[in-house]
């Protein structure tokens, strides 16, 4: 399946209706790993820009940051920090889910997992755009939309990861996701430590 504007629209609708089938189509597209890593960078840039825009519209402002009991560097809310964090988190998540899935007999490749998670990040960017529009025109609805997206995303995630890992069982996939939580949190903590210290001009080796 070659993804263009028209086919991507069809795939978005299919992901919402039948995420397992959509994941199979994404995997069947057969993009090389170099292309997939490029896509990962692109969706991370898009999501980082949207996070920054959301923070700009909803705060906190520099004045609010100054009044917080714990001083938080403003760079934490920069698009560069968001990009590093999101891209790093996605790379860690791809590898942890693939390794755990393979360890319990999953037949999916790293490229398969990379494909489905990059596509899910593209879907996340689309949802974020809709959420930002709602924040501007209907803030009360935006909160409900955000909650619905969060809950619906879990269902989509389970089915897509199941296909990416090649497990053939959503129950095993739930176990993989729960098991991967610890590894992902440790990886994110490392990213936060490195980038947080760097933002304050402190060497992480100190």
Which series of helices and strands comes N to C? HHHHHHHH
Give the helix tally.
8
Number of domains: 1
Please provide the count of β strands: 0
Structural class given helices, strands, pairing?
mainly alpha
How would you describe the oligomerization state of the chains in this entry? single chain
Q: Helical content, roughly?
A: over 70%
Low-confidence stretches: 197-206
Give the N-terminus to C-terminus distance in angstroms: 50 Å
On the 0 to 100 scale, the average pLDDT is 83
Give a verbal description of the structure.
- The chain is an all-alpha fold.
- It has one domain.
- It is 80% helix and 0% strand.
- The chain contains 8 helices and no strands.
- Helix 2 packs across helix 7, helix 6 packs antiparallel against helix 7 and helix 7 (139-165) crosses helix 8 (170-199).
- The longest helix has 30 residues, at 170-199.
- The chain is globular, with a radius of gyration of 18 Å.
List the topology elements.
Layout: H1 5-17, H2 19-28, H3 33-58, H4 62-67, H5 79-103, H6 110-137, H7 139-165, H8 170-199
Helix pairs in contact: 1-2, 2-7, 3-5, 3-6, 5-6, 5-8, 6-7, 7-8
Question: Keywords, please?
Answer:
206 residues; mainly alpha
In short:
With 206 residues, the chain is an all-alpha fold. It has helices at 5-17, 19-28, 33-58, 62-67, 79-103, 110-137, 139-165, 170-199. The N and C termini lie far apart (50 Å).
């Amino acid at each position: 399946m070659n993804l263009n504007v028209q086919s991507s629209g069809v795939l978005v609708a299919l992901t919402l209706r039948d995420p397992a089938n959509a994941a199979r189509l994404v995997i069947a597209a057969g993009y090389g790993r170099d292309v997939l890593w490029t896509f990962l960078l692109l969706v991370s840039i898009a999501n980082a820009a949207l996070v920054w825009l959301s923070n700009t519209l909803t705060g906190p402002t520099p004045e609010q940051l100054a009044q917080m009991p714990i001083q938080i560097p403003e760079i934490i809310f920069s698009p560069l920090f968001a990009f590093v964090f999101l891209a790093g988190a996605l790379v860690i998540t791809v590898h942890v889910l693939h390794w755990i899935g393979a360890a319990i007999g999953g037949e999916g490749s790293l490229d398969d997992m990379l494909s489905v998670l990059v596509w899910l990040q593209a879907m996340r960017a689309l949802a974020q755009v809709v959420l930002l529009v709602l924040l501007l025109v209907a803030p009360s609805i935006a909160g409900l939309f955000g909650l619905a997206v969060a809950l619906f995303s879990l269902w989509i995630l389970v089915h897509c990861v199941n296909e990416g890992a090649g497990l053939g069982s959503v129950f095993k996939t739930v176990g993989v996701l729960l098991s991967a939580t610890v590894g992902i949190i440790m990886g994110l903590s490392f990213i936060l430590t490195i980038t947080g210290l760097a933002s304050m001009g402190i060497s992480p080796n100190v």
